[in-house]
Specification:
This protein has about 200 residues and is of the alpha+beta class. About 45% of the residues lie in helices and about 15% in strands.
């Protein structure tokens, strides 16, 4: 691999898109050649990575869908509030965003434009890379809005209550959420508070 491409890989944290490479002056044919020679990995269409680096699926999906933000159950995993390793990645997008093609690994959720940018944080993946994710409170409320009776929902609430509990931030999220699961979350939270 030539030094210019190695520098480009290093500059981009070991992963880049084909668009970024072309914009930086690299030919697509060069990328294909390097993949064929096992000097570059192509973990998914349009993405290239360093073959000597362990691939982080969270970083791959964040790079693939730059407009997306992790949240819900996936966010709760990133905040270490569930031991349930995700097989699918819940990503949130501004309404109007459309995937080029359907894939089974990313579960898209669509958010109104005025609420999309709120509560975004940078969190560490299990491989210690940075990705964008909604706040723990927003992840908790979003997850409970969809899965109010699951065992994982109670596990995440207990973990949140024991380690990250912030009544003000949680009440802000609860007041802005509108779903049947929110009442279940409030009831479960009250039950937890009486136990402690």
């Amino acid at each position: 691999m030539n030094s210019a491409l190695q520098h480009f890989l290093d500059k981009n944290g070991g992963i880049f898109t084909s668009q970024e490479a072309v914009k930086a002056g690299f030919q697509r044919s060069t990328l294909k050649y390097l993949v064929d020679q096992n000097e570059l990995d192509q973990p998914m269409r349009g993405l290239y990575s360093d073959p000597n680096q362990l691939e982080d699926p969270f970083v791959l999906w964040q790079k693939k869908y730059k407009q997306g933000v992790f949240g819900g159950e996936t966010g709760l995993y990133l905040y270490q509030l569930t031991t349930n390793t995700p097989f699918n990645y819940h990503m949130y997008f501004k309404q109007g965003f459309h995937f080029n093609r359907i894939n089974n690994e990313v579960i898209p959720h669509y958010v109104k434009a005025d609420k999309f940018e709120k509560n975004i944080e940078v969190v560490k993946t299990p491989s210690l890379n940075n990705v964008r994710c909604y706040s723990v409170e927003r992840c908790l409320v979003d997850f409970w809005s969809e899965n109010p009776s699951s065992e994982i929902a109670y596990e995440t609430l207990q973990g949140y209550y024991q380690t990250k509990f912030d009544p003000y931030l949680l009440s802000q999220q609860l007041s802005s959420a509108k779903s049947r699961g929110v009442q279940s979350l409030k009831t479960a939270l009250e039950a937890l508070q009486t136990q402690w």
